[in-house]
Design goal:
By secondary structure, the chain is an alpha/beta fold. It folds into two domains: about 45 residues, Helicase, Ruva Protein, domain 3 (Orthogonal Bundle), CATH 1.10.8.420; about 100 residues, Dna Topoisomerase Vi A Subunit, Chain: A, domain 2 (3-Layer(aba) Sandwich). Helices cover about 45% and strands about 10% of the residues. A four-stranded parallel sheet has the order 2-1-3-4. Strand 1, helix 6 and strand 2 form a beta-alpha-beta unit.
Length: about 200
């Protein structure tokens, strides 16, 4: 097996990267100057050795701190809400939309017995610890519409039974500008279930 094939196989292991995307990236790298590839390789090696996660919320920490910019923000430190997300991509999307100014918690993975992902494979325990330490009053779940997300939410709620805590979930439904004719049944069902009063 040649280097290009190996690279394509490694790139395909990244979430959301298929065969075609992996080939495109690998071929683009093939035409980069050696200095670029050496620098990229050095950065990847550094990434593998560096502790890059925020010690509190598991976002990307700041260079000279154990915490991320959000956890270091004194205004957000007063927030009594935590938005629970599956991954950093979601956190960044919410931040870009400027729709939430509280704290976050990145689970890293969602519970999925079929994939062999158990609660201990996530950062749920760290989340539960934060609740009392930070006086949190509400958990807002911003997770994808999936069975794994439902299972994860149910597990967290079960673990927090009896606590004076509000739980909410972002609405799930039809994307803006999309025809209902092309929307799957589960999405339509969720949209009706989470409808709002006008």
């Amino acid at each position: 097996m040649n280097v290009l094939t190996l690279l394509i196989n490694y790139l395909k292991q990244l979430e959301g990267v298929g065969e075609r995307q992996a080939k495109k990236w690998a071929l683009q790298l093939l035409y980069q100057p050696p200095e670029y590839l050496e620098q990229l390789g050095s950065l990847l090696l550094q990434l593998s050795k560096e502790d890059w996660q925020c010690k509190r919320c598991f976002h990307i920490r700041q260079q000279e701190s154990a915490y991320c910019a959000i956890c270091n923000d004194p205004y957000r430190g007063k927030s009594k809400e935590i938005c629970v997300v599956a991954d950093i991509f979601t956190l960044l999307a919410i931040e870009d939309a400027q729709i939430f100014r509280g704290k976050y918690h990145v689970l890293g993975k969602l519970i999925s017995p079929l994939k062999g992902t158990l609660p201990e494979d996530t950062t749920i325990e760290a989340l539960l610890k934060r609740l009392d330490e930070e006086g949190i009053e509400e958990l807002i779940f911003a997770l994808p519409a999936s069975n794994e997300a439902e299972m994860t939410i149910a597990y967290i709620q079960k673990r927090l039974e009896g606590k004076a805590l509000r739980f909410s979930q972002i609405a799930v439904g039809v994307p803006f500008g999309r025809s209902l004719a092309y929307t799957d049944a589960l999405t339509l069902a969720k949209a009706f279930q989470h409808r709002i009063v006008l």
